[in-house]
């Protein structure tokens, strides 16, 4: 049974590595293809620190959960500039008839939540204690949904380029910035968890300010933007409007729980 579990864990690690490589080269491929300049593929090297640290932790030493948090931080530090480069360099020239079109970009960005799930669940100590198992399950649920929320915000801009709902360019640019901020916030959510000796603790101030920022800058702002897109420009965003509303309530309850537990 133990050997089968180890086989599954290593299989998940192989998938994680393959998906990360696919994502980094696809993102670099957009400016390289549309600008007809292969030098843009050098952008893929920005993921090298995350890949190298992950390989060292996985092969050379033990891939403990708290160390893999650091890998995710390095990955996000590479992902955000790559997304920004795609939209700054390629901009409105994405062609849906090309292989590297808007639909492919959506699929590549949707790899991000899957990478998070694989990373958390392949830690050597992810299921050694009930506390670690509960933490991994909690983070997997909350962070994966928030990451999909950020990807869907980017999807609004991609669909605007394709269908022309009338959304101003400046408004679309602000959505990209907020989506990248949401991605960056995922590292903050990991940092609020203190893991030591098989126990998990919450850093009070880190968790408190993270939830406040998530309410104000992410869920509330996303809700307002989606409401404008829905009512003014006629694009249906009702599902994620509801998600942002629920997110505000959950963050408020989390703040209450943080004060009560302290």
Structure description:
By secondary structure, this protein is mainly alpha-helical. The chain contains nine helices and two strands. It has helices spanning 2-34, 48-60, 65-90, 102-109, 111-121, 130-163, 169-191, 204-231, 238-261; strands at 193-196, 199-202. A two-stranded antiparallel sheet has the order 1-2. Helix 2 (48-60) runs antiparallel to helix 3, helix 6 packs antiparallel against helix 7 and helix 8 (204-231) packs antiparallel against helix 9. The longest helix has 34 residues, at 130-163.
Helix content: over 70%
Strand content: under 5%
Low-confidence stretches: none
Structural class: mainly alpha
Summary, kept brief:
This protein is mainly α. Helix content is 76%, strand content 3%.
Quick tags:
262 residues, mainly alpha, two-stranded antiparallel ribbon, 9 helices, 2 strands, 3% strand
